[in-house]
Design a protein that fits this description.
- With 392 residues, this protein is an alpha+beta fold.
- The chain contains nine helices and 20 strands.
- The strands form four sheets. It has a six-stranded mixed sheet with strand order 11-12-13-10-4-14, sandwiched between helices.
- Strand 7 (99-109) and strand 8 form a beta hairpin.
- Helix 2 packs across helix 8 (242-251).
- The protein is globular, with a radius of gyration of 22 Å.
- The N and C termini lie far apart (48 Å).
């Protein structure tokens, strides 16, 4: 295998190896799957806190007087309407309305935006933003390689992050709202940085729990990781891998690109039509024509061919991605196919299997009894609202 084809390593790779993590390829990166057990890491996030390496994500900056207008044209949402210091979930779509990636857009200043893309799509998103920003007074810079991203998720997250924050910024951390960000200084003990490092702290988690995402220069990632582990020792913090992250986001009903979202899906099938702003206007009040707008308008005005639903298992056997959703026959055998599971697993928090699936509209109502073909056996499931889990 050539070097170019090998999975890339994050700045925290050696830390994961030292902690005994099982590593796996994901989105072109070599990432920790788990450190101890999937169940222990999942429960730690629900009950205390988990520490995640998200440095495989992409960070693309747009700066200049036309940055907001460029993003209004490039994405389905109205980025120019985001207040400074706030963030918004959005998507970048193709001309046919299909989803190229789902994103979080942070407004860091009047003329400065940060777009965070999924790992496997980061290079595509960067290229598309460069192309779509042509003609706008904006500069697009992909800073993924120089940026590391560490997340602390769970009910003890605020205490842990505050413990490594310099005294003058502790209140900024505690006051940070959901889907907001702020620059803060953290104490890392990194002698090369004078023991402190400036980071962008955000509160836009992917686990269904409270939590913080910390964007840090890649060269300071290891010092920050060590400081957070040390600060979390008395709070139940554990490092957590991709497996726990996936089961946590599934319980929270959050989509994963390549499962609930892909280039065969528009935001409307995924139940995310709310992020599409067909009515957005520019600074002069004129309608904004964005990439995919015509196709998305037509899709909004037509009945859906499939609907994303939540499924709760009535037995113990879980559904998995790719399994058929069927109508149950009287003899317990799988009947007519009505959909496909996109994500599924046993729920450690709830104690029963959960899944998300695309099904035909006539079987999408809450309470509809369906089945999933699990190796030739019709396992009973019922349609339930998403998310499966919400923190109190």
């Amino acid at each position: 295998m050539t070097e170019e084809l090998q999975d890339k390593k994050t700045p925290l790779h050696d830390e994961h190896v030292a902690l005994g993590a099982a590593m796996t390829g994901f989105g072109g990166w070599l990432m920790p799957l788990r450190y101890t057990s999937d169940l222990a890491e999942h429960r730690a996030v629900r009950e205390a806190a988990g520490l995640f390496d998200l440095s495989h994500m992409g960070e693309v900056h747009l700066e200049g007087p036309g940055a907001g207008a460029a993003l209004d044209h490039a994405l389905v949402g109205a980025a120019s309407a985001i207040a400074v210091g706030r963030a918004r979930y959005s998507m970048i779509c193709a001309e046919d309305g299909s989803v190229l990636d789902d994103l979080i857009v942070y407004r860091l200043g009047d003329e400065h935006f940060l777009v965070v893309a999924n790992a496997g799509n980061a290079e595509l998103v960067a290229r598309e933003l460069v192309a779509r920003a042509a003609g706008f007074d904006a500069v697009v810079t992909d800073r993924s390689a120089e940026t590391a991203l560490v997340a602390v998720q769970g009910p003890r997250a605020e205490e842990i992050v505050a413990a490594v924050t310099t005294p003058g910024d502790v209140e900024a951390v505690r006051a940070l709202r959901y889907y907001a960000s702020a620059p803060v200084t953290l104490r890392t003990g990194d002698a090369g940085a004078g023991g402190e490092v400036a980071v962008l702290a955000a509160r836009t988690g992917y686990t269904g729990e409270d939590g913080f995402e910390l964007f840090v220069p890649a060269e300071h990632a290891r010092a920050l990781w060590a400081a957070l582990l040390a600060a979390g020792e008395g709070h139940g913090l554990v490092p957590a891998g991709l497996s726990a992250r996936d089961s946590l986001r599934l319980e929270a009903g959050m989509p994963l690109y390549g499962h609930e979202l892909d280039t065969t899906t528009t935001p409307y099938e995924a139940g995310l039509g709310r992020v599409v702003r067909l009515d957005k206007v520019d600074a002069q009040g004129a309608p904004v024509d964005f990439v995919g707008r015509a196709a998305l308008q037509a899709r909004k005005d037509s009945p859906p061919a499939r609907v994303l639903v939540g499924l709760r298992g009535q037995g113990r056997r879980p559904a998995r991605a790719g399994y058929d959703v069927v109508r149950p026959d009287a003899d317990g055998a799988p009947g007519a196919r009505v959909g496909t599971v996109t994500s599924g697993a046993p729920s450690p928090t709830l104690g029963y299997p959960v899944a998300m699936a695309y099904v035909t509209p006539e079987v999408s109502a809450e309470g509809t009894e369906l089945a999933v073909d699990v190796r030739g056996r019709a396992e009973p499931f019922v349609v339930v609202p998403l998310p499966f889990y919400q923190r109190s």
